[in-house]
Amino acid sequence: MKTLILANAFKGSLSAGAAGKIIRKNLGSSSELLLISDGGDGVIDVFKSAVPAAQIIKKPVQDAYGVYHNAPLLLLPGGKTAVIETAKICGLGGIEKCDLKPLISTSFGVGEMIRHGLKLGVKNFYIGLGGVACNDGGAGCAAALGVKFSDGKKNIPNTVKGLLELKNIDVSPLKLHGVKFFALTDVSNPLLGPRGSAAVFGPQKCRTEREVKVISAALKNYARVIKKSLGRDISSVPGLGAAGAIAAGLYVFLNAEITPGARFIFNKLKIEREIKKAGRVIITEGCLDAQTFMGKAPGEAVKLAKKYKKEIIFICGKNKLKEPARRGIKKILELSALARGGEDSVQNAAKILACVSKI
């Protein structure tokens, strides 16, 4: 029976498509390749592979630190539906730990990309959330679309530092009638609490524990002011902690429907049907750990493969998962085990993957 390759991106080193092609080249014609995503890295590639007629359009937007660059927007046939990938706009990939600046980073570029889509006549936005370098709760995105954030006297920066001083929110300039937003979340974590955005994902974006605590305090104030100004309690809604809590901003200001990205994409691509037909399943992920099973696509793929008693082989950059056999994973192939160091495993990921995937 065939081997099904479910390729997810290796963040910062290999796209899902590049990783999948390397593995398939080793396995030959007895394998089938499908790209997967949970809304994070690679969601545009997944939609493009599923809908070849879709058009990629490059537009200038700010990255997490306010530097303009060209990022992709995927326009589906008909021109009324677009896919946006936050990781391609204000992404974490490629930024060294020592260069992270989470207290002054912003999701402003996501709002700019939505504006580009609106000018093209888009009425439905699928926004893939995950892999970002900012943790501003989507305030930057909202600010780009007209929402005003102030300390009661003047507008504040749309960053974590700004949110610490937030007292008032004015949504009256926001004009988005007849437009629908779908936030494809890569995790189910809420905005606040021990499983919240700062506590669980802050360390990925921060250099120190102090910065994590500052983000937590900023998001608590953000939620408090939103409840006071807009009458919406967002502290514990599942999924709002996704992508530096950009999901929270989309939910509050754009009335976005929060949708688990993996489930949405798996339904579109009929992944469960393909797993049922396969003899074994190979799944890829940059880092295999407990977070993989918090709504991420590779975790959902493992659950489905286990459900149908398939042999599961997991290829990852680094493995931090305890008791993989309990999850149904038969074998783990780890790129970092063959690398000379962390930097080598990123820079030479393609070469190392070509070696470890000869299975």
Please tell me about this protein's structure.
By secondary structure, the chain is of the alpha/beta class. It has helices at residues 16-27, 43-50, 86-90, 108-119, 139-144, 160-164, 197-205, 209-230, 242-253, 261-269, 271-277, 297-307, 342-347, 349-356, and strands at residues 3-7, 31-35, 55-62, 68-75, 81-85, 124-128, 148-150, 168-170, 180-185, 257-260, 280-288, 311-319, 331-334. The chain has a 6-stranded mixed β-sheet, with helices on both faces. It has a 5-stranded parallel β-sheet with strand order 2-1-11-12-13, sandwiched between helices. Helix 7 (197-205) crosses helix 8 (209-230) and helix 7 (197-205) crosses helix 9.
Summarize the structure in short.
With 359 residues, the chain is of the alpha/beta class. The chain is built from 14 helices and 13 strands. The chain is 37% helix and 21% strand.
Beta-sheet strand percentage? Answer: 15-25%
Radius of gyration: 20 Å
Number of helices: 14
Task: Please give the largest β-sheet.
Answer: 6 strands, mixed
3D shape: globular
Order of helices and strands: EHEHEEEHHEHEHEEHHHEHHEHEEHH
Please state how the strands of the largest beta sheet are arranged side by side.
Answer: 3-4-5-6-9-10
Beta strands, count: 13
Helix-strand category: alpha/beta
Distance between the termini: 15 Å
User: Which runs of at least 5 residues are low in confidence (pLDDT < 50)?
Assistant: none
Chain-averaged pLDDT: 93
